Amino acid sequence: MQPGSAPSDARGQRPGRRRQAREFALQILYQGRAGGGPLEACIASFWESQGLPAPDIRAFAEELVRGAESHRAEIEERVAAVSEHWDPARMAAIDRAILHLATFELLHREDIPPKVSINEYIEIAKKFSTEDSGAFVNGILDRIWREHGAAPGADSA
Fold it and tell me: What is the pLDDT of residues 3-35, one digit of tens each?
């Protein structure tokens, strides 16, 4: 694998550019939260160890990480509100990171159709967590989107 490239999927195909960025964002957010260091230091350390991807991939990944962090309290509140019978603190850390990135996209990236965000993060959950995580992530994100009150004419999942 070349520096700055995302791993192939189960079929041996490389993901699209936005998927690569989302996967990098997940790895940065997960590592940053596990390590507890300053966000910018985590981002720099990640790129140093991985190599730099194309500028558009790097920019989108960093935007997602910074957005999820800057809206963390709101995102945690939304995830907790729709997580029936689940204490978010007891969720797998990787699933929480996936939900945080996806929720940021759903609530704050109006340029990305909700169905696209939800489907992307379902696939990422299957790849980085467990096969069951895909259904779990789908259920949580669908409820977040529905409770967000999709604006008239919005593309809901």
Answer: 444 444 444 556 799 999 999 999 999 999 999
CA distance 65 to 43: 9
142, burial (CB in 10 Å: exposed 0-12, middle 13-18, buried 19+): middle
Asked if residue 10 belongs to a domain, the reply is: no
Q: Which long-range contacts (CB under 8 A, 24 or more apart) does 135-138 make?
A: 136/95, 137/95, 137/98, 137/99, 137/102
The pLDDT, as a whole number, for residue 134 is 94
Q: What is the rounded distance in angstroms from the CA atom of residue 114 to the CA atom of residue 106?
A: 6
**88 closest CA partner among 134, 132, 140, 35:** 140
Give the domain range for residue 74.
17-147
The domain that holds 79 is classified in CATH as: 1.10.940.10
Q: Is residue 130 helix, strand or coil?
A: coil
Q: How many residues does the chain have?
A: 157
Question: Model's pTM, two decimal places?
Answer: 0.85
